[in-house]
């Protein structure tokens, strides 16, 4: 299985993405991480990946705001239609609403969001890697 992890460029998202890549590679999954600030405006193709994960932070409680760099990154991605996806936000007050906003943005791009969670630390990467591996059955 191959997985692409899209994340924002802040420290906590980057740290969790690196931990998730490490855990997925232990489970015989080829995983790659792409930060929102990497590559400027060059397109990101997702054709070779079975699962696309998005990790982000957010601001606000009543109406959560996702970073603008995440929207730009999702727009740069091609071939997202029909891809299985996983959405992760940092765990704090308003995380449920932020997850709904993130999943809606992912579904606007054509992804099928099949897993989601609010994450507290990089220590949760092992459990989430197992959940991601279950999204695509082994052949």
| Amino-to-carboxy terminus distance | 10 Å
Outline the biggest β-sheet: 5 strands, parallel
| Average pLDDT | 93
Q: Which sequence of strands runs across the widest sheet?
A: 2-1-4-6-7
CATH class: Alpha Beta
Q: What is the CATH topology descriptor? A: Rossmann fold
Oligomer: single chain
Helix-strand topology string: EHEEEHEEHEH
Discrete helix count: 4
The Rg value, from CA coordinates, equals: 14 Å
Describe, in short, the structure shown.
This protein has 139 residues and is of the alpha/beta class. Helix content is 35%, strand content 27%.
What descriptive keywords fit this protein?
five-stranded parallel β-sheet, Rossmann fold, 139 residues, 7 strands, 4 helices, 35% helix, alpha/beta
Descriptive overview:
Helix 1 (11-26) packs across helix 4. The protein has a single domain (2-133), classed as Rossmann fold (3-Layer(aba) Sandwich). Helix 1 links the parallel strand 1 (2-7) and strand 2 (30-35). The longest helix is centred in the N-terminal third of the chain and has 16 residues, at 11-26. The chain has 139 residues and is α/β, with parallel strands linked by helices. Helix content is 35%, strand content 27%. Strands 2-1-4-6-7 form a 5-stranded parallel beta sheet, with helices on both faces. Strands 3-5 form a two-stranded parallel ribbon. It has helices spanning 11-26, 68-76, 95-108, 125-133, and strands at residues 2-7, 30-35, 44-45, 51-56, 77-78, 84-90, 112-119. The mean pLDDT is 93.
């Amino acid at each position: 299985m191959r997985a692409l992890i899209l994340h924002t460029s802040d420290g906590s998202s980057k740290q969790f993405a690196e931990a998730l890549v490490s855990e997925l590679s232990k489970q015989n999954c080829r995983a790659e991480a792409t930060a929102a600030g990497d590559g400027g405006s060059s397109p990101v193709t997702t054709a070779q990946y079975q699962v696309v994960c998005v990790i982000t932070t957010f601001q606000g409680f009543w109406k959560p705001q996702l970073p603008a760099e995440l929207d730009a990154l999702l727009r740069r991605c091609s071939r997202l239609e029909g891809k299985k996806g996983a959405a992760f936000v940092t765990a704090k007050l308003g995380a449920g609403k932020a997850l709904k906003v993130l999943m809606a943005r992912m579904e606007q791009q054509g992804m099928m969001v099949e897993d989601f969670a609010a994450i507290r630390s990089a220590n949760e990467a092992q459990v989430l890697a197992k959940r991601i591996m279950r999204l695509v059955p082994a052949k």
